[in-house]
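Sharing a chain and its predicted structure for anyone who wants a worked example. Both blocks are below, sequence first, tokens second.
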Amino acid sequence: MHIVDGVLSLPVLAVNASIAVVGCYLGLKQLSDSKIPQAAVLASCFFVASLIHVPIGPSSVHLIFNGLIGLLLGRSTFPIVLIGLILQAVFFGFGGIIVLGVNAVNIALPAVLVGVVLKPYMNKWSPKVVGFLSGFSAVFLTSLLVAISLTLSGDVFINSASLVIAAHLPLALVEGFICAYLFSLLIKLRPEALAPQAQ
């Protein structure tokens, strides 16, 4: 999911950086004091999960839990993801600094969209169904945005873009099942975690 520096075109970098700035502004505005501890835990989960890479062909895949974060934090996912990406880039060289905006948008935007779409159904559908859909959809949409970012940067990346989507389909399924378990467990043990943020 991490695109490295020096790959993407300037327009793709500029547009995504602008979206990331707006997303972080809106996310920080929405983040209430009561949700900060939860946001810190979710940022840690994202940070650690993203460090465990499984090689697939010339690339690798890793869990991201962005769907679960989107369900729990909504727009506040943007600054949470950005913090994790900055730490990974600085300490471990994953991704890069120039491409932070693109990576943040590719991971956080699907999470926010999944949260918006699935939040009304959290009390209507089974927690396992909501959890699975959040995990699967967010990872699939993230891989799609990564593929689009690569394709818009040049025809030379079309094959790589197709590989990104194909490689992340199994991951989307795995993350869907993990999120189904985690979300149902969270509802049983900490239902207050699903309380809406104070505006």
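Comments welcome. The longest strand covers residues 54-56.
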